[in-house]
Amino acid sequence: xxxxxxxxxxxxxxxxxxxxxxxxxxxxxxxxxxxxxxxxxxxxxxxxxxxxxxxxxxxxxxxxxxxxxxxxxxxxxxxxxxxxxxxxxxxxxxxxxxxxxxxxxxxxxxxxxxxxxxxxxxxxxxxxxxxxxxxxxxxxxxxxxxxxxxxxxxxxxxxxxxxxxxxxxxxxxxxxxxxxxxxxxxxxxxxxxxx
Length: 195
Hints:
This protein has 195 residues and is of the alpha+beta class. 18% of the residues lie in helices and 27% in strands. The chain folds into two domains: 1-69 and 166-195, Alpha-Beta Plaits, CATH 3.30.70.580; 72-165, Alpha-L RNA-binding motif (Alpha-Beta Plaits, 2-Layer Sandwich). It contains four helices and eleven strands, in the order βββαβαββββαβββα. The strands form two sheets. Strands 1, 2, 3, 4, 7, 8, 9, 10 and 11 form a nine-stranded mixed β-sheet that branches. A two-stranded antiparallel ribbon has the order 5-6. The protein starts with a strand and ends with a helix.
């Protein structure tokens, strides 16, 4: 079998699956990627954007998805309000979400907004409420984890963009674009996860 490895910039509003099992009428990966029998490594919820890795390599998929292996995922997160040092420290140390405590994370308040394509539709704008951007690097990726983490410390997520998975970065991809991994990227990924 030939392994396939694809990077995709998932736009806002697209489901991270090839079939809409619940007939929600939202676009799926099938509208963008014409390669059969590849599957996303992890997910991004419909309201999140950014990097998805798709593959037919089950061993790699398992290694990157299982939280016990702890591979980094990097997100740029626009939040409502300006997080204070205490909120950033709390996020970094881990927070309790429902019955689960998140692992420690690297959280940085970005000085300038990241250069990203505009979101369609744009986020809601409130004239009297400032926003800020965080870079969050997690070693796990639970359902809606980033959104729940920022909500716990009082700074709701407005926009969420995953920009890296392990050593793979979004770079020049635009929303809706995809490309195959390079040979060098595949080698580095295999070394990283010890395949």
